[in-house]
User: Fold this.
Amino acid sequence: MVLSRKQLPDVGELVIGTVKEIHDFGAYLELDEYGGLKAFLPWSEVSSKWFRDIREVVREGQKVVVKTIRVDRVKKTVDVSLKRVSDVERQRKMLWWKRFSKACKIVEIVAEKLGKSIEDAYREVVWPLMDKYYDVMYALEEAVVSGSQVLRDAGVPEYWADVLVEEVQKHVKVKEALVRYNLTVQSYSPRGIEDVKACLNAIAEYLSSNNVKFELYTAGSPRYILDVYARDYKLAEVYATRAISKGEEKAKELSVVFKAERERK
Assistant:
């Protein structure tokens, strides 16, 4: 069970609940995100459609997405609604919950390896990633693609970062988009080799400084190939074109012939 950051949900908040008891007047749920906190689902909030028996809509053990409609912070009681959750909200929340639960399990595995407590794991990793990215699994996937600096940027301590990336790679297969450019970089000056290197270094330095995964290699001088990887083609294209512009600027400065052609599949 994931560690809750706060004791009670806010009114209007979507939460994941497991149905535990069903009665004629409503049902009792345990809120998965709040340490099994009990919540009441009134009969009138079960469905906007007519039903004869609550069990026609929910069953014991079922996980549901509900909306918080009342919170008594003194008595620590919560009432929720099922009928006020749209299909889109339900699908999005359930997908987020599945990804979040998986991410938390990965972080907990790393915590055990590092000799850290579950509380440390959430305080130092899960909650900082939630604050910056909301989707913790997205942050872990991005770290696999772009490097552990993604985690450090959210405030995750150094000693967690690389170990986390290594563990995520065991549990998650991240799809990468590849954008390839064929480059021609040529100089006729006495410093030709150094000038060509300077242009290629300008490309590499931009991508490295932005934690972008890439490969830049020769296809036989003066031809070179630039491969840029990202989570989607649009992002890969953005990084590639910006990196190439850095190479073009340096080429113009050094009077180097510089051409870039996007390879199409």
Summary: The chain has a mean pLDDT of 92. The radius of gyration is 26 Å.
